[in-house]
Amino acid sequence: MPFTDRRDAGRRLVARLGPWRGADVVVLGLPRGGVAVAAEVARALGAPLDVVLVRKVGLPYQPELALGALGEGGVRLVDPGLVRRYGITPAELAAVETAEGAELDRRAARFAGGRARPALAGRTAIVVDDGMATGASARAAVAVARAAGAVRVVVAVPVAARGALRALAADADDVVCLECPSAFSAVGQWYADFPQTTDEEVTRLLGGQAADGDATAGGEIDGGVEGGVEGEVTAYAGAVPLAGRLTVPEGAGGCVVFAHGSGSGRHSPRARSAADVLHRAGVATLLVDLLTPSEQDDRVRVFAVELLAVRLVEATRWVRRRTGLPVGYLGTGTGAAAALLASTDYRVRIAAVVALGGRPDLAAKRLGWVRVPTMLIAAASDHAALEANRVAQDLVSGPTRLAVVPGATPLFEEPGALGTAAELARDWFRRHLVPVPAAGSGHPARP
Known about the structure:
Elements: H1 6-14, E1 25-29, H2 33-45, E2 49-51, E3 54-59, E4 62-71, E5 75-78, H3 80-85, H4 90-112, E6 124-128, H5 136-147, E7 152-159, H6 162-168, E8 174-179, H7 199-207, E9 229-237, E10 240-248, E11 255-259, H8 269-280, E12 284-288, H9 299-302, H10 305-323, E13 327-332, H11 334-342, E14 350-356, E15 374-379, H12 383-395, E16 400-405, H13 417-432
Parallel strand pairs: 1-2, 1-6, 6-7, 7-8, 11-12, 11-13, 13-14, 14-15, 15-16
Antiparallel strand pairs: 3-4, 4-5, 9-10, 10-12
């Protein structure tokens, strides 16, 4: 029997990780069992310890057989060949992913919520598990670490099936494995003592590493911020850093999170101009980039509105913790669909949504779930988008208004067009987000 227990496995694994001692490393354990191994590795390397949250997507009638995995920050890896081989229907796959996604959220709240997490950008990530049968979870963990900005990802594991190691070869930069038996049936067979690791033990192990002083960086502002705040910040979707710009005017009673579409971001002059209109009305804003710099040229991710919505939800939870303010969404382009989808998420309570020249049609399947007050702003000369917005207006369940900006083309580039659209959004948020003080009055504005 190669390993006495997970602590023994971690200590023996360290002997093969000497090249990374003293390097700029973060050790990431896969909960639950992998964290116990990773804690020994982190301690020996003098590196910060964190979790990397993934959930195996198992066969509906044989959950131990992995079809793929889900990871924090919207990472999804599913083997289409296995789905076809076992005849899994889209509905069956969706049901498994929904259940595993809910457990992923629960673990995120338990293990990651409220704790400063080590930043991965520019560093080496060492992903540790207690063993691998298929490698699906480890591959998802590698994808999460790369999305968070890790420049090198190493997978370290005491024991693994040969097929799992082959599958990882194309994903990780290095793989360290102590035992690779020709006959592999279960991880637990390679440990003399292999009890289930509890949530409490994972939390304790992570807490033991909390004194390393490595905060999540980026200028985060802790809850209940005072007015007059403006600056660059970093929100996190799991381990994925989302760059943003937070502005909180004096007396702000609500915050609008901007969900940008393709070709736009927190530095966009058009976004800044629209945000300034809200600031003058006493509304705070968070202009957040939902894709990392390495993802922004990937057209698949630009149109992956479900991924954008997941990240928007996490940015919302971040800004609520920092400001304590109620939140609304302003979405443009594909960000409009993401905002509509995110407004239906049970984890956030959104007061109002504005889709400015966006693509609400990309959220068509869930528009009937949208119950928050929603304004759709369309350019009069953009006939296709105007029709899509009319259809969306009929599908949204909550109070809706379709506002058309006369003479405007899709990008609202005509003189005064963007200003008109921003003022429409401002009035909608002043009516449905909070009754913020009117400029210079000191009294609540009336709807």
